[in-house]
Amino acid sequence: MQIAIFRSSSLRRRVANAVSLLTLLSCTSSCSYLGRHVGEWCNTRAYVRTDLESYMDQRFTPKSPVRTGVIPFVVPANLSARSAQQPGLGNQLAWAVHRDLLETGIFPIIEVLNREDWPRKKEEFFTGNFGALAFARDAGYDMIVVGYLDEIKRLDTWRLHTKVIEVASGTTLWYGTSEVYTTRADLLETSSTIGLTDRRPDMQYSIQLLDAASSCIAYDMTHDPEVDG
Fold this sequence. Notes:
With 229 residues, this protein is α/β, with parallel strands linked by helices. Strands 1-6-5-4-2-3 form a six-stranded mixed sheet. A hairpin with a 5-residue loop joins strand 5 and strand 6. Helix 1 packs parallel to helix 7 and helix 4 crosses helix 8. The longest helix is centred in the N-terminal third of the chain and has 18 residues.
């Protein structure tokens, strides 16, 4: 899987697709080519950006076990959990973000809050996250990560909004919007058109998009583009 984080995705996406398609037309081994060139790409725009590691050192006792809770993401109703045995996409996103943030080593303690949904959870994401903060206080968290997945209009593109909030004050420390997309469907369609592979309109890439989204979110939360480039 390839993941690239671009600050201006529109032009680069068109160029990348054009180059990939031209290369595909001249390749003699479609399987080999597709294995190397298909992948997921994302672009994140942060509206609020705080150096989270420095903030934790200044706000809390240095090296203290600051607890961060990841709340299951708000997702469209048809992608929500059906039962404890069938977790929804919101919970899967929370676990993926938890995994990628844990790998950064910045958060002393980071856990997924075991609460999938509550009344008005969707509406409150843009109006204060009061329910999430109340559950976080009861659970003893110092910070929380909350997220919102927009309605999915294209199977190859997701748009997500994510925040990091300090629980005691309700202050938003980081807030960004990520768009992640996959080139797999486009390249497979082109290769099937010229007879190199079979046409597969049934193929979906939710797992790949989920992994790319969580990596993109975790990266941008913990890297400042003005410093890291």
